[in-house]
């Protein structure tokens, strides 16, 4: 007797009509036609069943604060940072927790069950850290939350930032963060990378840095990060987030840089929605959109994971916690239109992001955690095209969110009475692979 049995599922790797049995919170069997009973059964009817979505880059302490203390009129990164600086002294532990928990509710409804959140450590009160640690504990039964100690105002630029970051780590924050391009000089930026990687090595922690989030092609801190990763033996434990300056770099330099990133085993985390919103703000036309070189990084074997970054905060007034929206945008901006490309983008919001976070028990194989999402789509390509409805979200074998299939009733003479957008894909793929 299993706890949950999902029948007739399509899997992201192309397997079809698979049954998935879950017992004691883990996948106990995964094969065609499991002859067994369960306390609860779901017929997926040929729909896609995926491991949960993972967001490897977010700011949970700032989420849902849009309009506080005022709107970002210029829409720029720097005004967003300035606005957050104005709001920071007004932050209370209670308000931070309330907004973060509300966002986690939204995330669960979207099948997003793991988040890495950067937490600003620039305020010596560390109220953001206290609040997010409590949130991490409260959501643990249904969502994996990792916290990054993030010196938003600069590790060297802001007085007391070094001490505050180390106190945050002492309190139990999981990851060492940084923002080298926001230091006063390139030299101080490089020095901050070195210092923060040393802290991580001494404490046995991962690193995740906002790196080169700028249109300046001379912002090359990712090169320093790659070198420091190797020097401190941090291979596989370091992420470079954003990397937007690579959009503006010349091809010769990038031909040197990408192999360095691959050699160091650095995870690359672009954030398509906010990267294309904030970058290129000083351009007229042609206008750069700032997203890093996703296809080239993937081709070099770099683990590319896509982040949402922000939802309704001083930097980004939009967002819905939907990682399929993130992937959908990446496909367009990176011009990744082939079948294989879209499959890779789906992996970037699931398995690649799980790898970047070092999640244990993640996946769709026997013995993995019973964490699944049933989508109103037949395959990953259709899920990305439609930003598919989540029919059921499952955590350790328990359904924690569900919704009815999305359809529209038509009142047109001689035409069908119901339209389901998921029925419109051709029976054989017409796209080139």
Describe the structure in your own words:
This protein has 433 residues and is an alpha/beta fold. Strand 11, helix 7 and strand 12 form a beta-alpha-beta unit. The two termini are 42 Å apart. It has helices spanning 77-87, 93-109, 127-139, 161-171, 186-203, 221-231, 251-263, 272-278, 294-299, 323-333, 339-348, 351-357, 380-386; strands at residues 2-9, 18-23, 26-31, 38-43, 48-50, 53-58, 112-120, 144-150, 175-178, 207-211, 238-242, 267-269, 372-375, 390-395, 398-402, 408-409, 418-419. The protein folds into 2 domains: 2-50 and 363-423, Roll (Urease, subunit C, domain 1), CATH 2.30.40; 53-357, TIM Barrel, CATH 3.20.20.140. The radius of gyration is 22 Å and the shape is globular. Helix 2 packs parallel to helix 3. It has a 7-stranded parallel β-sheet with strand order 6-7-8-9-10-11-12.
Can you lay out the helices and strands and say which pair or pack?
Blueprint: E1 2-9, E2 18-23, E3 26-31, E4 38-43, E5 48-50, E6 53-58, H1 77-87, H2 93-109, E7 112-120, H3 127-139, E8 144-150, H4 161-171, E9 175-178, H5 186-203, E10 207-211, H6 221-231, E11 238-242, H7 251-263, E12 267-269, H8 272-278, H9 294-299, H10 323-333, H11 339-348, H12 351-357, E13 372-375, H13 380-386, E14 390-395, E15 398-402, E16 408-409, E17 418-419
Parallel strand pairs: 1-4, 6-7, 7-8, 8-9, 9-10, 10-11, 11-12
Antiparallel strand pairs: 1-2, 2-3, 5-13, 13-14, 14-15, 16-17
């Amino acid at each position: 007797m299993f706890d949950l049995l999902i029948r007739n599922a399509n899997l992201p790797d192309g397997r079809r009509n698979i049954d998935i049995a879950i017992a004691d919170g883990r996948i106990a069997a995964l094969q065609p036609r499991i002859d067994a009973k369960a306390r609860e059964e779901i017929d997926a009817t040929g729909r896609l069943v995926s491991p949960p979505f993972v967001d490897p880059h977010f700011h949970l302490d700032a989420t849902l604060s849009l309009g506080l203390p005022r709107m970002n009129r210029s829409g720029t990164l720097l005004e967003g940072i300035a606005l957050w600086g104005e709001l920071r002294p007004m932050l209370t532990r209670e308000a931070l927790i309330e907004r973060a928990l509300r966002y986690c509710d939204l995330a669960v409804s979207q099948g997003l069950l793991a988040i890495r959140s950067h937490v600003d450590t620039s305020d010596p009160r560390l109220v953001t850290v206290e609040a997010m640690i409590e949130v991490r504990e409260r959501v643990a039964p249904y969502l994996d939350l990792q916290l990054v100690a993030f010196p938003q105002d600069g590790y060297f630029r802001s007085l007391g930032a070094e001490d505050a970051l180390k106190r945050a780590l002492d309190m139990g924050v999981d990851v060492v963060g940084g923002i080298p391009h926001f230091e006063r000089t390139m030299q101080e930026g490089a020095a901050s990378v070195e210092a923060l990687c040393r802290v991580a090595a001494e404490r046995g922690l991962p690193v995740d840095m906002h790196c080169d989030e700028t249109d300046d092609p001379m912002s090359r801190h990712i090169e320093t990060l790659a070198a420091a990763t190797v020097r401190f033996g941090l291979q596989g434990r370091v992420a470079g987030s954003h990397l937007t300056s690579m959009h503006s770099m010349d091809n010769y330099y990038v031909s040197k840089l990408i192999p360095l990133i691959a050699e160091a085993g650095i995870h690359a985390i672009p954030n398509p929605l906010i990267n294309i919103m904030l970058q290129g703000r000083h351009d007229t036309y042609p206008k750069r959109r700032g997203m890093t070189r996703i296809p080239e990084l993937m081709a070099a074997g770099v683990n590319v994971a896509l982040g949402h970054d922000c939802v309704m905060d001083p930097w980004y007034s939009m967002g819905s916690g939907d990682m399929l929206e993130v992937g959908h945008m990446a496909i367009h901006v990176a011009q990744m239109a082939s079948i294989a490309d879209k499959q890779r983008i789906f992996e970037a919001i699931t398995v690649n992001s799980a790898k970047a976070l070092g999640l244990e028990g993640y996946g769709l194989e026997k013995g993995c955690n019973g964490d699944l999402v049933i989508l109103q789509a037949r395959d990953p390509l259709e899920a990305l095209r439609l930003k598919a409805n989540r029919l059921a979200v499952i955590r350790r074998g328990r359904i924690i969110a569900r919704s009815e299939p999305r359809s529209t009733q038509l009142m047109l003479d001689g035409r069908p009475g119901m339209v389901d957008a998921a029925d419109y894909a051709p029976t054989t793929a017409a796209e080139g692979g």
